[in-house]
């Protein structure tokens, strides 16, 4: 196995009580059986999957379902499969090296490359937080009918309270985030039950690709909102110093349990995203409301179409999504700063700084739909800067040891990177006013 150095302590991940370490070591040594053997390793993927059901996903999935009905469901399915693959690689990198992805980039890349990458990652983190914070504030606003600025203050208080849980160890925060993820999932189960979608249409469009006029733009947007760069960085940190394998056998077992964690959490996020798109298809597209993209408009439109209960459930899911993803975004931002430049600031201070753009947007009464879309464009632009180094590192035996990628894994990885880059280049191209005949 590759040499494991002492990782830089990250308050959001490392400087916590390692209450699961003993149970994890027992499981790695084979002293636990059944579900008790897996439980110590469940949690990091749930934190990562939060980013895959954040308010940016609400905006792109609702827009896709409203405009194209069921037709873009295949994009959600394939994007989720890509997300499972990429998050597994990120977790594996943390297990094998004891480092997170930004730390490894700092160690192995020239400072002339690292500093621009750090700046890009910080811009990405702020764009992510903007969408998540504004989404949570909208949830409070819609649910309790309070002014959006007051809702933003409630969002700030709530996220500070959630981040405070880290002082009690990582398990309480993981448990709370898992509950919020399950709450979002349950909301969409209820929404779909109320809407009564066509199972036949779902089965077809979940696997059969559709490309039509304007669909590439939304497909790229869905991908950009689904495969989130900040949790590619974060997932490696969540595994780097959680439970350290003592030898190659333990490393393989830990990776095996981590894959189970990913395969439980990430498909759940995929089901939620699919539920968002299908709900928009049966509620908006089938009623001729093909231009719905604003979340407030979607909430108001749900009431006459499906009833007040459906609208309330939508607001609850948006609030749970925004709060959980905003907390995770702050954790990822701390990992990015400390990993790239070896500098850290108190988590509460970072949370305060990253809230400022959100309060500016809300105070100026800027369109929330535009805000969410712009944030996803920024995320799409920087996604390749996380995925490409991830594949570069995980294919190196000197870094990964027994967990080095198989050849087919590396081929699939570069294929995913190519798709991400091409789709997101197209997204940026169209956003800047370009057009492709037959597709734009």
Summarize the structure.
By secondary structure, the protein is mainly α.
- Any idea what the CATH superfamily is called? Amino acid/polyamine transporter I
Mind summarizing the main beta sheet?
Answer: none
Q: Specify the structural class.
A: mainly alpha
Topology, number of strands: 0
Number of domains: 1
Radius of gyration in whole Å, from Cα? Answer: 21 Å
CATH architectural group: Up-down Bundle
Indicate the mean pLDDT.
79
Helix segment tally: 19
Search tags:
440 residues, mainly alpha, Amino acid/polyamine transporter I, 75% helix
Description:
By secondary structure, the protein is mostly helical. It has a single domain, classed as Up-down Bundle (Amino acid/polyamine transporter I). Helices cover 75% and strands 0% of the residues. α5 (73-97) crosses α17 and α9 runs parallel beside α13. The termini are far apart.
Q: Helices and strands in order, then pairings?
A:
Elements: H1 21-28, H2 35-38, H3 44-50, H4 55-68, H5 73-97, H6 101-108, H7 111-144, H8 148-164, H9 170-195, H10 199-205, H11 215-226, H12 229-240, H13 248-283, H14 295-306, H15 308-341, H16 347-363, H17 368-394, H18 397-400, H19 407-431
């Amino acid at each position: 196995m590759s040499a494991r150095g002492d990782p830089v302590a990250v308050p959001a991940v490392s400087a916590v009580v390692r209450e699961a370490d003993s149970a994890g070591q027992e499981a790695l040594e084979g002293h636990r059986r059944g579900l008790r053997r897996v439980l110590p390793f469940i949690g990091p993927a749930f934190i990562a999957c939060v980013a895959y059901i954040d308010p940016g996903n609400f905006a792109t999935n609702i827009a896709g379902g409203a405009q194209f009905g069921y037709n873009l469901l295949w994009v959600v399915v394939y994007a989720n499969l890509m997300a499972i693959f990429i998050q597994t690689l990120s977790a594996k990198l943390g297990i094998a090296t004891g480092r997170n992805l930004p730390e490894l980039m700092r160690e192995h890349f020239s400072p002339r490359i690292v500093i621009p990458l750090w700046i890009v990652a910080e811009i990405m983190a702020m764009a992510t937080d903007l969408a998540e914070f504004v989404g949570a504030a909208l949830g409070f606003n819609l649910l309790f009918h309070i002014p959006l600025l007051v809702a933003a203050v409630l969002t700030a208080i709530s996220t500070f309270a959630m981040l405070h849980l880290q002082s009690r160890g990582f398990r309480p925060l993981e448990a709370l985030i898992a509950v919020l993820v399950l709450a979002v999932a349950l909301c969409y189960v209820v929404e779909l039950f109320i809407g009564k979608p066509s199972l036949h249409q779902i089965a077809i469009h979940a696997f059969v690709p559709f490309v039509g006029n304007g669909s590439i733009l939304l497909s790229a947007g869905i991908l950009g909102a689904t495969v989130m760069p900040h949790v590619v960085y974060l997932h490696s940190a969540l595994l780097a110093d959680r439970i350290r394998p003592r030898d190659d056998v333990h490393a393989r077992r830990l990776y095996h349990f981590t894959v189970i964690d990913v395969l439980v959490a990430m498909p759940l996020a995929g089901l939620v995203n699919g539920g968002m798109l299908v709900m928009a298809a049966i509620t908006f597209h089938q009623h001729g409301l093909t231009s719905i993209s604003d979340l407030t408009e979607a909430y108001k439109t749900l009431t006459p179409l499906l009833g007040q209960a459906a609208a309330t459930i939508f607001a609850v899911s948006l609030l749970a999504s925004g709060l959980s993803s905003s907390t995770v975004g702050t954790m990822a931002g701390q990992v990015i700063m400390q990993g790239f430049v070896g500098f850290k600031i108190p988590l509460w201070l970072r949370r305060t700084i990253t809230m400022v753009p959100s309060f500016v947007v809300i105070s100026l009464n800027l369109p929330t739909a535009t805000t969410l879309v712009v944030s996803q464009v920024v995320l799409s632009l920087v996604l390749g800067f996380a995925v490409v180094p991830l594949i570069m590192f995980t294919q190196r035996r000197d870094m990964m040891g027994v967990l080095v990628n198989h050849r087919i894994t590396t081929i699939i990885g570069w294929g995913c990177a190519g798709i991400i880059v091409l789709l997101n280049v197209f997204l940026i191209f169209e956003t800047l006013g370009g057009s492709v005949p037959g597709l734009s």
